[in-house]
Each structure stands twice: as structure tokens, then as C-alpha cells.
Design brief:
Helix 3 (71-78) crosses helix 5, helix 3 (71-78) packs parallel to helix 7 (172-204) and helix 5 runs antiparallel to helix 6. The chain is built from 12 helices and 2 strands, in the order ααββαααααααααα. The chain is mostly helical. A two-stranded antiparallel sheet has the order 1-2.
């Protein structure tokens, strides 16, 4: 659903740019509360993974494909504020390096694909989690539903933006029907990818899933010690041994008090290194190998734009001559090698930029906390 240059006029593009900048600024502040020393590097990995999976267009109808938007996945894995930043980093890298999504339309794309999808998805996710039983399966089901709804929500948002600033004379009713119709189908694919990914992480490391906090953790059970004093009624019914009445009654309460007040040993935090390496390997595999087998059909927006005439005033991308334009490495004739190498470069660049942003945000939080201390 990357909007190219020329679809939306300059005034509305400028307004969405302001909205996007405001959303990023608020998210930078909010992400400080979501990130810690373990999740900051993971947030960069989430951005890289979304970049990689967005290269995997899947067929949804005759001559139409779809791809992951990623707002729901990012919000559930690392938090809604951090999720907005993850998708924004992906969109920035795609626009600058790969000529995917217009630069003048960057505000439109961030507003639509990062802000709307994340807000809608996380609101639905939290609602389901609060109402449903507190189980791991609930997190997966809620992820599926949240992602499913987030995609047509983005289609509705695009239609609204187009109604305000569309450059072609197209009936908005036709745009709405076509956009929502095809993106409901794309939403099914988005939901499947999101649920599978979240479910896989929850199965092995639920502590690393932001949306699973307080849901998958088992409550602490305090069991009675065998040395604990009996209940008052039981004491009244029991007879003390005749041989040692004082010793038995004086030492047991002390021992039981010690047992009752003893705090459980602190559980050390497990390293997230294995999850990080597994996620990076999955991202590189998707971008470097699997992407070659992705559908070549236009995605939902491209198909609707062509069929309805929305693309009548589309403009050339400012970075159309980039060495990585259209997800291929310039001057490499082998399509498989060119696309795979471009994907690997994209994963690396997105990981580097995303990790850098989130580590800086985390350090600013740590600095602020030390200043207050």
C-alpha cells in the first residue's frame, strides 16, 4: 500500500507530513517507557523483519497480490509507540533506498501504514486480551483479529486522504469499495503472518512479547509449609504430645514464620541473544531467498489505482536511479542474485538504522532515570 508521488496533492501531503512528524515525536517519547536493555535491540530486529516480510507479496485474487503492513505485528511484539517507529523506519528505508513509496508521500505512508495500523491493531488486541481468558492462545487469537482489521482500516484511511487531496477525478465511492474489498483479503494474509510470528515467539519466550506481559505469566503460588502452624480450629482439635509440650510449640512457629516470610529467589533475566539470532536468520532468509518466489502481481493499491485511474498523475520517484531501485542491485543481470542481494542489504540497513534509533531512545531513558535518582 505504498503511496507513490503524485497520488495526493501538495497541501494534503504537507498536512499528513505534519501528522506523521507529530506521531513520530510522540512515539519517540512513548518508546522510552516500552524499551529496556533487552527489547531495544529486538525492536531494531522487528523493523528488519517487517522489511523482509514486506518483500513477500502473496496472491489474493486474480492479478492482485498483497504484502504485510506490519503495524499489528510491531505493536504486539514491542509496544504501540515503538511499533509506530518500527514501521516508520521501514518506510523511510524503502523510500530512500528502493524507490518504493514516494518521498513527498512519506507523510501519507507513515500516517496510513504506521500510525493507523498500529493504533487500530493495538486497541483491538488489548480489548480482546482483557475480555478473554488469560492464556497464551489468547495472545495469538488476539493478534490474528487485530492484524485482520488493521489492513482494511488502513484502506479506509487512504480513501479518506484521497477524498481530501486526490489528484485524479475518481468517484470516492468506487475507490472505497475497491480498496476495502481487496484489503479485506490482504488482511487475512496479514493476520496469518502476524499470528504465526507472535505465536512462535510466545511459545519460546513470552517474556519478550510486549503484548503478552501480564497475560502469559503464571501467578505466584504460595504453598503451605509442612512446618507451618495448623489452623486455629485444627489446633483446638489436636492434642499436644505429653512428653515435650514446650519444645514442640516454641520452635515450630519460629521455623514456620521463617518459611512464610522467606522471599523467593530472584530469577535472573534470560538472554535474548538466541531469539535475536533466529529472527535475523529468518529475515535474511525471507529477503535473500524466499522473496524471489513472491508474487509478481501488483499489490492492492497498485491494482486499484490502475483499474480506477488513480494513477493518472503519478510522478516518477525522486530516487528512481538508486542502485537498489525496485529491489534489485544495479548492473547485476541475474535476477535471483540481484533481488536476493538487494533484500539482504535492505535487512542490514534497516536493522542498523532501527537498532541505532532504539538504543539511543533507551539510553535517553536511562539518563533521565539516573538524573532523577
Amino acid at each position: 500500500m505504498h503511496v507513490p508521488d503524485g497520488f495526493i496533492d501538495a497541501p494534503v501531503s504537507a498536512v499528513t507530513g505534519v501528522v506523521a512528524a507529530g506521531a513520530v515525536a510522540v512515539s519517540l517519547r512513548g518508546a522510552r517507557r516500552e524499551l529496556d536493555e533487552r527489547t531495544a535491540p529486538l525492536a531494531g530486529l522487528v523493523a528488519a523483519f517487517i522489511f523482509a516480510v514486506q518483500m513477500l507479496n502473496f496472491p489474493v485474487a486474480a492479478g492482485t497480490s498483497g504484502h504485510l503492513l506490519g503495524g499489528a505485528l510491531a505493536a504486539i511484539l514491542v509496544g504501540p509507540y515503538t511499533g509506530v517507529l518500527c514501521v516508520s523506519v521501514v518506510l523511510l528505508m524503502q523510500g530512500v533506498l528502493f524507490a518504493d513509496g514516494g518521498l513527498t508521500a512519506l507523510g501519507v505512508n507513515i500516517t496510513d501504514m504506521a500510525l493507523v495500523t498500529t493504533v487500530v491493531a493495538y486497541a483491538i488486541f488489548r480489548t480482546i486480551v482483557k475480555l478473554a481468558p488469560r492464556r497464551r492462545r489468547t495472545v495469538t487469537v488476539a493478534s490474528f483479529a487485530a492484524a485482520l482489521v488493521s489492513v482494511p482500516a488502513a484502506a479506509v484511511a487512504f480513501t479518506a486522504i484521497y477524498a481530501l487531496g486526490g489528484t485524479a477525478d475518481v468517484a470516492i465511492g468506487k475507490v472505497f469499495a475497491a480498496m476495502v474489498g481487496v484489503h479485506v483479503l490482504i488482511g487475512i494474509g496479514e493476520a496469518a503472518i502476524t499470528a504465526l510470528t507472535v505465536g512462535a515467539v510466545v511459545a519460546v519466550r513470552p517474556d519478550l512479547v510486549y503484548g503478552a506481559r501480564g497475560v502469559t505469566a503464571r501467578p505466584l503460588e504460595i504453598r503451605d509449609s509442612p512446618l507451618a502452624p495448623a489452623a486455629p480450629g485444627a489446633v483446638a482439635r489436636a492434642e499436644a504430645p505429653a512428653a515435650e509440650p514446650a519444645t514442640a510449640t516454641s520452635e515450630a512457629p519460629e521455623t514456620s514464620a521463617t518459611s512464610a516470610t522467606r522471599e523467593p529467589a530472584a530469577v535472573p533475566r534470560r538472554s535474548a541473544r538466541r531469539v535475536w539470532l533466529a529472527g535475523l536468520a529468518a529475515a535474511l532468509l525471507c529477503a535473500g531467498v524466499v522473496s524471489f518466489y513472491a508474487s509478481a502481481s501488483p499489490d492492492g493499491l497498485e491494482k486499484v489505482a490502475h483499474d480506477k485511474g488513480i494513477d493518472a498523475k503519478e510522478e516518477d520517484h525522486a530516487t528512481k536511479d538508486s542502485p537498489l531501485a525496485d529491489y534489485g542491485v544495479k548492473d547485476i543481470s541475474d535476477a535471483r542474485l540481484s533481488g536476493g542481494l538487494a533484500g539482504v542489504i535492505g535487512v542490514g540497513a534497516t536493522l542498523a538504522v532501527g537498532s541505532g534509533v532504539f538504543i539511543v531512545v533507551r539510553r535517553r531513558r536511562a539518563t533521565a532515570e539516573s538524573g532523577r535518582g
